[in-house]
Amino acid sequence: MDDHLIDGDTLSTARKSVLPGEGFFYPDSFDEERADQEAAATLAGAATVVVADPDADGLACVALLEVVFGDVALIGAGPHDLSEALARVGAYAEPEARVFVCDLCPDSEDDLVALERLVDREEGREGNDEGKLRWFDHHQWDESVARAVREAGVDLVVGDSEEECSADVTLRSLDHDFEATYRDLAAVTRDHDLWLREDPRSDDLADFAYWADSEEYLETILEHGADLPAEVEAYLAERRIEKEELIERAVDRAEFAEIGAWTVGITYGRCSQNEVAEALREQGADASVIVKPAGSASIRGSEGFERCHKVARQVDGGGHPKAAGCKPDIYEDMLDYAHHWSTRGAVTKRVIREAFERLPETDDEESESADR
Question: For the whole model, what pTM was predicted?
Answer without folding.
Answer: 0.79
